[in-house]
Design a protein that fits this description.
heterodimer, A: alpha+beta, UDP-N-acetylmuramoyl-L-alanine:D-glutamate ligase, 12-stranded mixed sheet, 5-stranded antiparallel sheet, 24 helices, B: alpha/beta, 11-stranded mixed sheet, 7-stranded mixed sheet, about 35% helix
Chain lengths: ~700, ~850
């Protein structure tokens, strides 16, 4: 079994309207060996991946795929399911796949939907290895492989926060483009775009981030604005630290001026020795050291987005229970085996590490890492443990208002506020609580997946912060496909939009253009160029030519379009990739933009081409036909149904809306004898322009000016 | 010569609207004033010598041997150090020869803003935008309250953090620029030397190698055309980040284009550091010689930096077969490194006017695509006056927070107004980022007036920040407690991110101690300059001195602002000539001569006409409300509250608040215990009236007596103590006024003896009582609550009791508690009386009420 080629279909494609990969897999001699002829294959596969029982497959019920394995199915099909399962186990669930025979013997197209094409490719290559090991009955270390895939998934797929924002955008109909393999995402197209990078937006101020980094400055600004903060000051050296602690006459916190995520922060210190040791630790960060009053209570994380506190989670101390036989080191190892624990923002619980701070904490409880606590004895390993309990509904309105104020004082549009209070349901002043830190780019996971309580729609809040109600970040987007006349059609549409004042990004066979400027003079009817057009912050409209080949091999560059124009399917047979597919794939590729027309958009279809006219059934918006005989099918039925069409009658073009007929457009280049095919691009363009809401006289003026 | 005390007056003050040091100095020799003048001038000269732009100083005699020095400063620390130096060195030494001048200069360099930030701040100040540093570094806040903006060197608060992250990643930047058709050098990311060489061959030699993430040209090598050179360059660059970029070598010069907003503001051509041989000196010697050039400094203060022959430099020489001790031929130019950064000794020539519009367009597009509002775009091209497509030039880097020095003070060519451009990109024309500021000063009525204006403004939807003697309030929430009528509190309000308008009670103490907390205000109100308020403190001995202090806010009124002045007080009326803006007078007396003259000249005033509170402008009259219908006046009886309302209405009117909103504001403004504790709160209890108030000076008592005279009463009683920090004469005067008016007086000594010995205040008051023509009964209680308790317990129907509370919150709670007990009649007042009576001592048995 050999994977010949993998196409990243990173957009709507002929299989699905979501990204997928398409692999061409040559089964070789396994074409003769379906699963029921491979001794023990099914049992061993199910042994590795028992969760495959959930795959319904074409049978449509739980265990469906298992039945197919038992009755015999080909390894291409197995590869599809195993790839899906590895993606799901290693990172995020995906549920769509196809395996199709091709015209070539033993060669299959295996299609798997994916979160990230590169990650799906990795999973597919692992799936192949696993399948071949099972065939040969050789051992395969699936756990190790999943671990590796999980790490790669972390690099290549969206993090949980970004995913939540992107999902929320999608739910509002806002498109997105990934700008890197990481979490830098463009929401919306062209000049309507905004950007996010994890929990930062393009409106997140760099100056504000620098302010938030400086704990001392932040505390000063917060205090001046009337936000409850712990009293304290910066200190010059270890002796000064102890002096400051004595001034406060209460247990203290010692932390670096510049820092985040609790690094080198020591808590609840009340002896000279502890304060001095904590000073040394914090001083290593090199930014200066703060000594401040220790605020007793529970640590809370309040997420502020714009002028609202949208979520709040509470944390609690991390305490291990002794069992009378294990050392603390062993107890920690055991706790770290919890699959929810890890390092970084992807994990709900953090790994416990024997940092100097934890060692100091143990020492103060008279433990060393090798102590063996008694049965049931508690060992505190973190004062402020992981944030796991959603308390958003309990958040007192005054605390919420204070958190918003704190974010504003620092200048952040999105901030995570660390608030220590015995009860977040009461005002802070009354209980001696305080805002102890303001964090830029806060982690969202704790709000999305609290262990207790309800997940909060923080992605939605961020999207709503970026886009006013009803805004979808879209610009007029016209896609043009078809075997002939595409470029002429696209150019005309773009020129007309430009005449109406748009700065049009146009990607077509002549190149990539913005307004009058050619950005690249190479053929650009592909997905990459389309994406470049949509990335351009100068573009107020986009006209994208989409070649069949680019749709087959890359998918579309956009999720939806306002107008999809299909000129003709003449000659589609010749465009199918030899040995692999027949014309139907090309027809689907030509249709791909029609499949993703917005509900309030239009498909502009050639009534004279039955294949193209037949695409109307797949359009979620309205359909505009163009052709030359209003009396013949399908134009006749279309107009009878009250729909719109542009009809050529002799040397005139006439716009119909049902029975309503608009004044004819005169085109000087059009005569009675002009061959229909040669005016199709013009008609397609004119129909698209009219569908975009341009009036007849305006179109006429444009045609006159353009020499038609 | 000896300095007794030094104060920094950080805002408009008694002496000047500039920031000044105020020092009290004593002199032994002859002509102390002359000595003082010379000393002050020396301190000024020292500051000027180290680059501080100051011009004002003066000396005034205080006593025979003492003088007060007033010396302008821009950097407080520098001025203080300059004062120390001036004392330490003979005044005859020429300034430039003062031995410690270099340390003073070093201090000035350290505390002063860097050239980039400084240029922006100066540009803002020229536009009248207030600037305030938030740290010792380059973080500066412009404007006030909700209109404030911030910069951090050449970053603004709109500079996107994401934009900066993108700019940091050269590879990502390049891919984004490629997408929008901005020419960039094609290149590849490499991690090993082998990959780097492969990439170099694929791209075509020569190539450049740089760290994938980096700045200031660190680790960059260019023009590499051999495997060896590529490998070496990779090893240097990879050390920074673990990844390098190998890209097409570009021919031509380095240019830096500065884009601000959607405009190209400046461009400079940058040359790498070099020396020219003389046929004798070694390269090292030539470098040392060039570094003696005074234009070359160690920091960013000069237009050129010192040349360096460090590892990169030596390496670079070696590539050309040279060593630091090689002797170049006469006229031979030796480059010391490839990159042209100023920080490593390069130079910059302004070329702003030659940039081809197409090149400028690409630079602007690049900044927008990366997402930066202020960006330094590095362009390599043989000519900058031709489109990049023609010269095969490219944009090689987009820098966030670009240095501005090369545009401000290029080594050659014209400096550019980049600070102005940044300020203009942050603030629309005419926008000075200020919020309306009302400063309220005067002896009495400040707090009530402050509250009343706040109330009127807040009702129009403005988020008001208020400072007063009760604390700091923002949007009605108290964010600080205690006496907050000073400059620190004013600054806190002006810094607050939500404040749309500020109403600041501005007391005498803060003005003397530190100056005002703001540079300009829109409205300054002077309610009155009362008799006996704080005279004898801080060198303010006469009421005229006091008037000068209260006039400081009037001097800080902006040209578009107004002073709201009490037309009935000659000292206040005189302040009109100090005001740069308009004057609005107020008086209860419609026929006041001052008012009449002002109206005749077309001026604005607020007064009472036919019982109507009326805004007057020349002949135009706008009625606001009937005075006796405004709750604050208690049926029109409390005259001083009418004054407070007049002043408040004048301020609101000048701020452009519509009359309907002013009317609604004054009609709904009350002075009850909850909203204005201790500010003429009127309570009634079983036929008697209790008034709770706060003022402790003669003019307040006069005003109170006037108001209370209009309240029906059988007997008038008062609970009172004098504050110890008033002059003896003032304490006696207060007592006399009490005796003139009240029938029964309860006095006590409590928290506010302020430095006087036990019994002293009572003794002084006693002297005052006996100087009155009336002889009321005077009783002494052991403390404030005991006095209030006794007075209330002994109330009879028809009594009018004034309680001058001192510990406001405690006393109010105490009074409420007593009245509640009495009303629920578990213990009628009569029953409580006996307990309190036991503690009372008769001071004067009195004639009345018997």
């Amino acid at each position: 079994m050999h994977i010949r080629k993998i196409f990243d279909l990173d957009g709507p494609n002929i299989w699905s309207n979501k990204p997928a990969i398409e692999a061409w897999v040559d089964l070789g001699h396994f074409e003769e060996l379906p699963t029921n002829k491979l001794a023990g294959f099914t049992e061993r596969l199910m042994g590795y991946l028992p969760s495959l029982i959930e795959h319904r497959c074409s049978i449509g019920e739980r265990g469906g795929f298992l039945q197919r394995l038992e009755t015999g199915t080909w390894l291409g099909h197995v590869l599809e399911h195993v790839t899906l399962e590895l993606q799901s186990l290693a990172y995020s669930p995906v549920g769509f796949g196809r395996a199709r025979e091709t015209l070539e013997y033993g060669v299959y197209k295996v299609v798997v939907r994916c979160a990230s094409p590169r990650f799906a490719e990795m999973c597919m290559r692992s799936a192949r290895e696993l399948i071949l090991s099972i065939v040969d009955d050789k051992p395969y270390d699936l756990d190790a492989e999943l671990k590796e895939l999980r790490i790669q998934g972390g690099h290549l797929c969206f993090g949980p926060g970004t995913q939540a924002i992107v999902d929320a955008a999608r739910a509002r109909g806002i498109p997105f483009l990934r700008l890197t393999d990481g979490n830098l995402v463009q929401l919306g197209y062209g000049k309507a775009q905004r950007r996010i990078w994890t929990a930062e937006t393009d409106a997140t101020s760099a100056v504000a981030e620098s302010v938030a980094q400086d704990k001392e400055l932040t505390r000063r600004l917060l205090a001046a604005a009337g936000v409850a903060v712990p009293t304290g000051r910066t200190v010059a050296d270890a002796s000064d630290a102890w002096l400051a602690a004595q001034e406060l006459a209460e247990p203290v916190v010692v932390k670096p001026v510049d820092g985040n995520h609790g690094r080198a922060v020591s808590i609840r210190l009340d002896t000279e020795e502890a304060v001095r040791a904590a000073y040394e630790l914090a001083a290593k960060e090199g930014s200066g050291v703060i000594v401040e009053r220790f605020i007793p209570g529970i640590q809370h994380r309040v997420l502020v987005v714009g002028d609202q506190a949208v979520a709040s989670v509470a944390g609690d101390a991390d305490v291990l229970q002794g069992d009378g036989t294990s050392t603390i080191r062993q107890l920690i190892d055991e706790a770290n085996r919890d699959p929810r624990r890890g390092v970084g923002q992807t994990w709900v619980l953090s790994r416990i590490e024997l940092t100097p701070i934890v060692l100091e904490l143990l020492r103060r409880q008279d433990f060393t890492p090798d102590s063996v606590p008694k049965v049931g004895e508690s060992v505190l390993v973190q004062h402020h443990g992981d944030l796991t309990v959603d308390e958003t509904e309990r958040l007192h309105p005054e605390v919420a208002a204070m958190c918003v104020l704190a974010a504003q004082a620092v200048g952040l549009d999105i901030a995570g506020l660390d608030v220590v209070a015995a009860d977040i349901g009461l005002p802070l002043e009354a209980q001696g609580g305080a805002v102890i830190e303001v964090n830029a780019s806060p982690g969202l996971l704790a709000h999305l997946k609290p262990l207790t309580g309800q997940p909060r729609p923080v992605g939605e809040a961020i999207v709503n912060q970026l886009f006013a109600p009803g805004e979808q970040g879209r610009i007029p987007l016209v896609a043009v496909s078809g075997t002939l006349g595409r470029t002429e059609t696209a150019t005309l549409i773009a020129q007309c939009l430009a005449a109406r004042g748009h700065t049009v990004a146009r990607a077509d066979s002549s190149g990539l253009h913005l307004g009058a400027r050619t950005l690249r003079a190479e053929p650009a009817a592909d997905a990459t160029s389309g994406r470049h057009a949509l990335m351009n912050p100068g573009a107020s409209a986009a006209v994208l030519e989409t070649s069949e080949r680019s749709i087959l091999e890359e998918g579309l560059s956009f999720d939806h379009c306002q107008v999809a124009v299909v000129t003709t399917s003449v000659g589609a047979e010749g465009l199918a990739r030899p040995g692999v597919e027949d014309r139907s794939a090309v027809d689907k590729a030509l249709r791909a933009p029609v499949d993703v027309v917005l509900p309030d958009g239009f498909a502009v279809l050639n009534a004279s081409d039955p294949v193209v006219a037949g695409m109307a059934a797949h359009c979620k918006g309205r359909v505009v036909l163009f052709g030359d005989s209003p009396a013949a099918s399908p134009l006749k039925e279309h107009l009878e149904a009250g729909e719109q069409a542009l009809v050529r009658l002799g040397s005139q073009l006439i716009w119909w809306k049902g029975t309503e007929k608009f004044p004819p457009l005169t085109v000087s280049t059009l005569t009675e004898s002009t061959d229909l095919a040669s005016v199709e691009p013009l008609m397609a363009a004119a129909a698209a322009i009219l569908a975009l809401g341009v009036s007849g006289p305006e179109l006429q003026a444009f045609l006159n000016k353009s020499g038609y | 010569m000896k300095i007794e005390s030094v104060r920094s007056l950080r805002g408009p003050n008694l002496w000047s609207n500039q920031t000044v040091l105020e020092a009290l100095a004593s002199f032994d020799g002859p002509e102390p004033l002359l000595q003082a003048q010379r000393l002050a001038r020396r301190v000024l000269e020292l500051q000027v010598a180290v680059g501080c732009q100051v011009s004002f100083c003066e000396a005034r005699p205080v006593s025979e041997r003492q003088c007060r020095l007033i010396i302008q400063y821009v950097e407080e620390e520098v001025a203080k150090r300059a004062l120390e130096l001036a004392l330490r060195h003979p005044l005859s030494t020429p300034v430039q020869e003062v031995r410690d001048l270099p340390t003073l200069r070093a201090l000035a360099e350290e505390v002063r803003l860097g050239p980039s930030t400084g240029s922006i701040v100066r540009a803002a100040e020229r536009r009248g935008i207030p600037a305030r540093r938030l740290t010792g570094g380059s973080l500066v806040q412009f404007g006030f309250g909700s209109r404030r903006r911030r910069i951090w060197a050449a970053e603004t608060d709109r500079t996107s953090a994401i934009g900066e992250s993108i700019a940091q990643d050269k590879d990502l930047t390049k891919s984004l620029l490629t997408a929008i058709g901005v020419p960039v050098p094609e290149g590849r990311v490499c991690t090993t030397a082998e990959q780097a060489w492969e990439a170099a061959q694929a791209i075509g030699l020569p190539v450049a190698v740089k760290p994938r993430k980096g700045n200031q040209g660190k680790g960059v090598s260019t023009g590499l055309d051999t495997r060896e050179a590529v490998v070496t360059a990779h090893e240097i660059a990879v050390a920074y980040d673990g990844e390098t970029i190998v890209e097409r070598h570009l021919y031509g010069a380095d240019h830096r284009l500065l884009v601000i907003g959607d405009r190209l503001v400046a461009a400079a051509r940058r040359e790498p550091p070099s020396v020219v041989g003389d046929g004798q000196a070694t390269i090292a010697a030539l470098v040392a010689k060039e570094n003696e050039n005074p234009l070359r400094g160690d920091d960013h203060a000069t237009s050129l930096s010192k040349l360096r022959l460090d590892a990169i430099g030596v390496e670079h020489l070696a590539e050309h077969g040279l060593k630091p001790d090689s002797v170049p031929a006469k006229g031979q130019r030796v480059l010391l490194r490839r990159n042209a950064n100023l920080s490593t000794g390069g130079s910059a020539t302004d070329v702003t006017d030659s940039v081809h519009p197409e090149v400028a367009a690409r630079a602007i597009e690049a900044a927008r695509m990366v997402g930066l509002d202020v960006a330094g775009i590095d362009v390599v091209a043989t000519r900058i006056d031709q489109p990049l497509e023609l010269t095969r030039g490219a944009i090689v880097e987009v820098n966030a927070a670009p240095g501005l020095r090369m545009h401000l003070e290029p080594s050659a060519g014209q400096g550019r107004a980049v600070g102005e451009a940044i300020v203009d990109s942050m603030f629309k024309p005419g926008d000075d980022a200020r919020i309306p500021i009302v400063a309220v000063t005067g002896t009495n009525g400040k707090t009530t007036t402050t509250r009343c204006i706040t109330h009127i403004l807040a009702r129009t939807g403005l988020r008001v920040g208020m400072t007063c003697t009760d604390g700091i309030y923002v949007e009605g929430r108290r964010i600080d407690t205690g006496d907050c009528a000073g400059p620190k509190s004013a600054r806190a309000v002006l810094m607050h991110p939500r404040v749309d308008a500020a109403v600041l009670e501005t007391a005498r103490g803060g003005i003397l101690r530190e100056g005002l907390g703001f540079d300009l205000c829109d409205v300054a109100i002077v309610t009155n300059v009362g008799e006996g308020d704080h005279l004898g403190l801080n060198g303010i001995d006469e009421i005229r001195d006091l008037a000068r202090v209260k006039a400081v806010p009037v001097r800080a009124v902006s040209a578009r602002g107004a002073a709201v002045l009490n037309a009935d007080e000659p000292l206040v009326v005189e302040m009109a000539k100090l005001c740069r803006g308009t004057v609005v007078f107020f008086s209860r007396n419609e026929r006041s001569a001052v008012l009449a003259a002002h109206r005749a000249a077309g001026g604005a005033a607020v007064t009472v006409i036919d019982g109507q509170l009326t805004i007057v402008r020349g002949r135009q009259l706008t009625q606001v409300a009937r005075v006796d219908q405004l709750p604050l006046t208690v049926g029109g009886r409390v005259g001083f509250q009418v004054d407070n309302l007049l002043a408040s209405v004048a301020a609101a009117y000048w701020l452009g608040i519509p009359v309907d909103a002013i009317r609604a504001g004054v009609r709904s403004f009350t002075s009850d215990v909850a909203s204005a504790p201790g500010r003429f709160n009127v309570l009634t209890h079983q036929g008697s009236t209790i008034v709770l108030d706060y003022g402790h000076n003669a003019s307040a008592l006069l005003a109170l007596n006037e108001a209370l005279a209009k309240f029906p009463h059988k007997r008038r009683k008062v609970v009172y103590t004098a504050a110890g920090d008033r002059r003896d004469a003032d304490i006696k005067r207060q007592a006399q006024l009490l005796a003139d008016f009240f029938d029964e007086i309860y006095i006590y000594e409590d928290q506010c003896t302020r430095g006087r010995s036990d019994g002293e205040i009572i003794r002084l008051m006693r002297e005052g009582f006996v100087s009155s023509s009336r002889s009321p009964r005077v009783l002494q209680a052991p403390g404030e609550m005991a006095a209030i308790g006794a007075a209330i317990a002994r109330l009879e129907p028809g009594d009018l009791l004034l309680c001058q509370v001192d510990q406001v919150e405690e006393a109010l709670a105490f009074v409420n508690g007593m009245l509640k007990q009495a009303e629920t009649s578990s213990r009628p007042l009569a029953q409580m009386a006996a307990n309190f009576a036991a503690a009372l001592m008769v001071v004067l048995s009195g004639m009345s009420g018997a």
